[in-house]
Amino acid sequence: xxxxxxxxxxxxxxxxxxxxxxxxxxxxxxxxxxxxxxxxxxxxxxxxxxxxxxxxxxxxxxxxxxxxxxxxxxxxxxxxxxxxxxxxxxxxxxxxxxxxxxxxxxxxxxxxxxxxxxxxxxxxxxxxxxxxxxxxxxxxxxxxxxxxxxxxxxxxxxxxxxxxxxxxxxxxxxxxxxxxxxxxxxxxxxxxxxxxxxxxxxxxxxxxxxxxxxxxxxxxxxxxxxxxxxxxxxxxxxxxxxxxxxxxxxxxxxxxxxxxxxxxxxxxxxxxxxxxxxxx
Length: 280
What we know:
The chain is an alpha/beta fold and 280 residues long. The chain contains eleven helices and nine strands. The longest helix is centred in the N-terminal third of the chain and has 13 residues.
C-alpha cells in the first residue's frame, strides 16, 4: 500500500492540476474506487500495464499496488508529468516499475512495452473511439483492455443485434474481443463531475486469428451502417453490388437492416465483398 503518499487533493493543489476541458480531464480522487477498477482488471501478475492520461495518479497508485510487473503512463499534460515524476521518486527503490511517457496515446507505439501487456485507463471521452479503434487493429497484442467510458458508448460496445445500441463499434469490438460491462461510475465520483454517467468495460481479445483483415471488416461494417434506417439490400445496390444475392448468401431476410446482422453474418458479408466481386 502506498499509504505514505500525499492525498490526491494536495497533489492537485501543489501542481496546479485543475482539470482542463480541452484535455477531457475529470479526475477520480477516491482511492477505493481506483482500487476497485484495478481489481476488476483481473490478475495482473507478470503483466506490463499501460495507463492513458494518469492525471493526479489515483489509478496509477492502485495499479502500482497490484502485482503488475510494470506501469507505463502516457500523458500529454506537462503538469501531470511532474506529478508522475514525483510519484516515481517516492517509489524508490522500485521506481523502475513506473515508466513515464510524455506524448499522445494516439501516436504511441505500444510494442515498446513488453508483453504480456494490458491497458487500464480512464479515457478522455473525446478521443476514446479513436484510441479504441487503434487498439482493436492490434488486439492480439494485449492481454486485456479495461477502460472507463461514457456509459452510452460503453453500452454500444456490448450492444446486441436488433437493439438501438448495436452499431459499428459493437460489431468491431465483439468480432475481435469478448466484451463485458463491469460497473457504472456516477458523476459524483469525479472532480469536476461530468454531466454523464460513466462505465467500466473490459475487452479480452479472442485467441483465434480473424478470417479477414481488419480493414476489410471495417469497410464492410462502415458501409452497412452508413444509412442505418435503410434496408441493407439498397445500401449494397447503391455501392455497386447485387444486394439481393448477397443477402441470400449470408442468410438474412431481403428486407433486413444492418442492425439485424450477427457478427458472423458481417464476417461472411465482408468475405463475399472481398472475394466474390465478379459474382455479384
